[in-house]
Amino acid sequence: MNNIAIAIHGGAGTLLKENMTPKMEQSYMAALEGALKAGRTVLKNEGNALTAVEEAVKQLEDSPLFNAGKGSVFTSEGTHEMDASIMDGKTLNAGAVSMVRGIRNPVSLAKLIMEKSGHVFLAGQG
Is 52 exposed, middle or buried (0-12, 13-18, 19+ CB in 10 A)? Predict the structure, then answer.
């Protein structure tokens, strides 16, 4: 596979450059590069796009810097409730989870729902 491309988005919150130290910026850039590398590695090894997306998102979920997985914002009750979704552009199959707790990588659970269940969207107890 010669021509591959991958794009990621690390969030939609407000991080003002003037409030970020060089060390913080380096941490964010390293985490984003890690996510890109994870997805790119899958693609370079002839993996499919869906797995590349899952692996890239897992890197973001494993980082405390992003509002996903490990870095999720606390609820008003002081817990984490996470959401994730994934979609296969070829088949238009999708899987999603909402309000899940105690899951390291919600994106992998969403993919499992898409591939192994008869459902598209499952939610935890609110």
Answer: buried
pLDDT digits (tens, 9 = 90+) for 24-53: 999 999 999 999 999 999 999 999 999 999
Task: Give, as one character, the DSSP assignment of residue 20.
Answer: -
Distance CA 72, CA 64 (A): 8
- The Cα 20–Cα 24 span in angstroms is 6
First-to-last C-alpha distance (Å) of the chain? 44
- Using CA atoms, how far apart are residues 108 and 114, in angstroms rounded to an integer? 10
Q: Among residues 79, 76, 56, 51, which one has the least CA distance to residue 66?
A: 56
In sequence order, the 6+-apart residues with CB closer than 8 A to the CB of 76 are none
Alpha helices in the chain (DSSP H): 22-44, 49-61, 106-116
Confidence of residue 13 (pLDDT cuts 50, 70, 90): confident
